[in-house]
Every structure is written in structure tokens, then in C-alpha cells.
Amino acid sequence: MRHRKRGRKLGRTTSHRTALFRNQATALFEHEQIRTTLPKCKELRRVAEKLITLAKRGDLTARRQAAKMIHKHAILRKLFDDIGPRYQDRSGGYTRIIRGELRRGDGAQMGYIQLV
């Protein structure tokens, strides 16, 4: 039974899944909107919202914790200097997921995740 087991495995090992979300979070903060499959969007939302909450705090400890996930220094700077202060008066719900079309190759449900 899967009681209290959170998150989707997405058919990947733990290290592969972690690397996937690192790359997708970096791309989301760089472009502020990305297109991927709907289950990946829903899982990426959890990661991205926690990183934006760290950016709202803005102290050195939060920056170091966020640097574990965001390896590009320019994107980390953008997260803490631009994106974090933008949501200072908002108490959650920093991302929006929009359902897209079905992917032509395998019929997977696509989605767009964007910063509000």
C-alpha cells in the first residue's frame, strides 16, 4: 500500500528524477513558461513553489538551499532578485498549469506551466 507516499515516480530512478526537476525548474525560472507532459507539470509545481518561497525569504541560508536545486548562478540570481520580490505579498500559488494538446507521437497529455 502507498499510504503517505507523496509524488510520482515517472518511471525514473530517484537520481534521474531529481536531475529532471533541477533542469525543469531552471528552465521554468529562465523562460517563465515551459511545455512538458501534464504529470511532470504537476510534480514540477511542488518543486518550483518551494524554491519561490525560499526566494521570498531571501537570506543566505535560503539562497544556499535553493542553490542545491538551481546550479546556474545567473538563474539563481534572477530567482532571488526578480522573482522572489515579485511574489512578496502573495501567500502561495505562484505557478499556473494549463492543459495543452495531445502529443502527436504517443498521445501524451501535454501542459504548460508558467509563473503567475
Automatic annotation (TrEMBL):
<dbReference type="Pfam" id="PF01196">
    <property type="entry name" value="Ribosomal_L17"/>
</dbReference>
<keyword id="KW-0687">Ribonucleoprotein</keyword>
<dbReference type="InterPro" id="IPR000456">
    <property type="entry name" value="Ribosomal_bL17"/>
</dbReference>
<comment type="similarity">
    <text>Belongs to the bacterial ribosomal protein bL17 family.</text>
</comment>
<dbReference type="GO" id="GO:0022625">
    <property type="term" value="C:cytosolic large ribosomal subunit"/>
</dbReference>
<dbReference type="GO" id="GO:0006412">
    <property type="term" value="P:translation"/>
</dbReference>
<protein>
    <recommendedName>
        <fullName>Large ribosomal subunit protein bL17c</fullName>
    </recommendedName>
</protein>
<keyword id="KW-0689">Ribosomal protein</keyword>
<dbReference type="InterPro" id="IPR047859">
    <property type="entry name" value="Ribosomal_bL17_CS"/>
</dbReference>
<dbReference type="GO" id="GO:0003735">
    <property type="term" value="F:structural constituent of ribosome"/>
</dbReference>
<dbReference type="InterPro" id="IPR036373">
    <property type="entry name" value="Ribosomal_bL17_sf"/>
</dbReference>
